[in-house]
Specification:
By secondary structure, the chain is α+β, with helices and mostly antiparallel strands. Helix content is 19%, strand content 26%. The strands form 3 sheets. Strands 5-8-7-6-9 form a 5-stranded antiparallel sheet, with helices on one face. A two-stranded antiparallel sheet has the order 1-2. A two-stranded antiparallel sheet has the order 3-4. The longest helix is centred in the first third of the chain and has 26 residues. Keywords: Membrane, Transmembrane, Transmembrane helix.
Length: 224
């Protein structure tokens, strides 16, 4: 009986000396480029240094002047009214090293305890024209010029009609010829401003009423 498959013998060809030498030769390896390795190390070190500098900068604190007790508008600021506090980040305030330069000046607006003091909140001028008075006005966002107002600007103060009123009542002029004495951002209300305006004494009540009812609008007018 024949086998289902046939077995065959194969003989490997004999290798010569040259063939055996070629088999012993190692495969070529990738060559390293020292210049690129050095550049990579420099990049790693540089990024580490930059990251460390940014971390240190972010945590760095600077002393600034802070109000320690409430100060009324127009009141002379004393050393006992002030202190310093360390804050981080981009904060606009008087540096703690300049605290003594604030003493003796007057508050251009009412200052609450904990307020970080700015130069715009101070004034050295306490004189007031005859017949004029200073009135504080709180203005919400969108109710004064987009560029804001500064000390010396001539303005008019209007009072908006009561909300929910009938008809088409127009705003009422409560101060026809007023002047900005001081202006600062309202720290308690985003987009709001706190103003001190010089107005004739007989218009002070109307301006204060508009501010108290949150209906005040400030219009900047040219000087005559």
């Amino acid at each position: 009986m024949k086998a289902s498959t046939e077995e065959r013998e194969f003989t490997l060809p004999a290798l010569g000396a040259a063939d055996r030498a070629q088999m012993r030769t190692p495969l070529p390896t990738r060559q390293r480029r020292p210049a690129w390795v050095a550049v990579g190390l420099l990049l790693v070190v540089g990024l580490a240094l930059v990251s460390g500098w940014l971390y240190t900068k972010a945590g760095q604190k600077t002393p600034v002047v802070v109000v320690k007790s409430d100060i009324a508008m127009g009141e002379v600021i004393e050393r006992a009214d002030l202190s310093t506090v360390e804050v981080a980040g981009g904060v606009t305030a008087i540096a703690g090293a300049n605290l003594d330069s604030v003493v003796g000046q007057r508050a251009a607006v009412g200052l609450m305890t904990g307020t970080l003091l700015q130069r715009s909140m101070l004034t050295q001028d306490h004189s007031m024209p005859d017949g004029m008075v200073q009135v504080g006005v709180a203005v919400t966002g969108g109710r004064l010029p987009a560029g804001g107002v500064t000390t010396g600007d001539r303005v008019q103060v209007l009072a908006l009609p009561e909300a929910g009123g009938t008809g088409t009542a127009a705003p009422k002029v409560v101060a026809k010829d007023a002047e900005i004495f001081a202006a600062m951002e309202d720290p308690t209300r985003a987009g709001g401003f706190l103003l001190t305006v010089l107005v004739p004494a007989d218009e002070a009540a109307g301006v204060a009423g508009a501010s108290g009812s949150d209906s005040a609008v400030v219009v900047k007018v040219p000087r005559e």
